[in-house]
Amino acid sequence: MFPYLMRRLANYAILLFIATSLAYLLASASLDPANNWNREDPSLNWDAINAALVQYNISSDMPVWGRYVTWLREVVTSWDWGVTPKGESINALLGTKIAVSVRLVFLGAMIGMVGGVALGAWTATRQYKFSDRAISLLAMIVISTPAMVLAILLQVLAVHINRTTGYQIFEFTGEGEGFLGRAQHLLLPTLSMSLGSIASYSRYQRNLMLDTLGADYVRTARAKGLRKHQAATRHALRTALIPMATYFAFALAGLFTGAAITERVYGWHGMGEYSINSISSYDINGVTAVVAFSGLCTLAGALLSDVFVAIVDPRVRVS
After folding, report:
1. Taking the C-alpha atoms of 142, 147, 149 and 153 in order, what is their torsion angle to the nearest 10 degrees?
2. Is 235 exposed, middle or buried (CB count within 10 Å of its CB: 0-12, 13-18, 19+)?
3. Tens-place pLDDT, residues 248-258
4. How far apart are CA 162 and CA 304, in angstroms?
5. Distance (Å, rounded) from C-alpha 28 to C-alpha 110?
6. 7-59 pLDDT, tens per residue?
7. How far is residue 160's CA from residue 190's CA, in Å, rounded to a whole number?
8. How many angstroms separate the CA atoms of 195 and 161, rounded?
9. How many CA atoms lie within 13 A of 308 on its CB side?
10. CA–CA separation, 304 vs 8, rounded Å?
11. Mind listing the pLDDT tens digit for each residue in 144-186?
């Protein structure tokens, strides 16, 4: 298994390098950081602005390939991802944004994945019963509801609960301070993110489980005396988790950059918000760093998926 994983890791590293390089070249060719300033404002010192952009290696007057070579050399030799058009360090910004997003996304993602798999597997064993139909209907309603609307509905429900109980159980914006304060501020955004994930993952898991529950090896296990839930958990669920692991892997990057709406609604300043702001502020180095981070998350998830598949699927170890 180790040589197999090393080959996959080498492939992923090459893909990440190509994707990040293309992102920098495209951003450099299409974004002009000088647009952050009003070109018709006579009070601005354009000589100083252009000199600063040249010093930051993001001036549109410089050749794109020359900027790319300088940027790549700094990244490889000093792990310096450059600065924004305002002169802020990308390394420092990313460190802060990633830490915020990890606190926001990790718990919601784990609840979404575990809850979605468990709910999908359970409803598959109860196909066409009332509980299966009711959960399917609720899941479709949640999936069809935009993230913004779902977040606002949760806020309305939280206000009602706070007023009814007389306690400030839910907080609405920011990260809070102290363990209890952070937990209170985390409740609503975690619910907002995990509900959509549970609904989506449960639909995939249910369909995969229905396929495996009717397979010959599951019926053989039942014929040998295994109870229904034992055959489902030991044989059907294990097989159905293989494609789900791949799905989780490629959803990992979207969790960070796709949390922009949740971050905006609940006042969290993480990677989702930064990915939008970097484009609107013509931040070439910021856009490239966001793409590199997203690619790294995707490939890290894909590697974890490979490890998981190698563990649960003996054919991978044999090959």
Report:
1. 70
2. buried
3. 777 776 777 67
4. 41
5. 36
6. 878 888 899 999 999 999 999 999 999 988 887 778 888 889 999 999 999 99
7. 18
8. 18
9. 18
10. 11
11. 988 888 888 888 898 899 898 888 888 877 777 788 888 888 8
Q: Which of 233, 245, 238, 310 is nearest to 113 (CA)?
A: 245
How many Cβ atoms are within 10 Å of 136's Cβ, its own excluded?
A: 16
Sign of the CA dihedral running 8, 10, 14, 20: positive
Of 120, 309, 319, which is closest to residue 210 (Cα–Cα)?
120
Q: Which residues have CB under 8 Å from 111's CB, separation 6+?
A: 190, 194, 197, 198
* Distance, CA of 173 to CA of 141 (rounded, Å): 26
- Name residue 304's amino acid: L
For residue 74 the two structure tokens come to 């700094």
Residue 89 sits at φ, ψ, to 5 deg, of -70, 130
Both tokens assigned to 47: 């000589």
Secondary structure (DSSP) of 221-271: HHHTT--HHHHIIIIIHHHHHHHHHHHHHHHHHHHHHTTHHHHHHHT--SH
Predicted TM-score (pTM) above 0.85: no
CA atoms of 37 and 45, how far apart (whole Å) = 10
Helix residue ranges per DSSP H, the chain: 2-30, 46-55, 64-78, 90-125, 130-144, 147-165, 178-213, 216-223, 228-231, 237-257, 260-266, 271-280, 284-312, 314-318
Separation of alpha carbons 151 and 83, rounded Å = 34
Report which DSSP code applies to 282.
T
Per the CB < 8 A criterion, the answer to whether 209 and 125 are in contact is yes
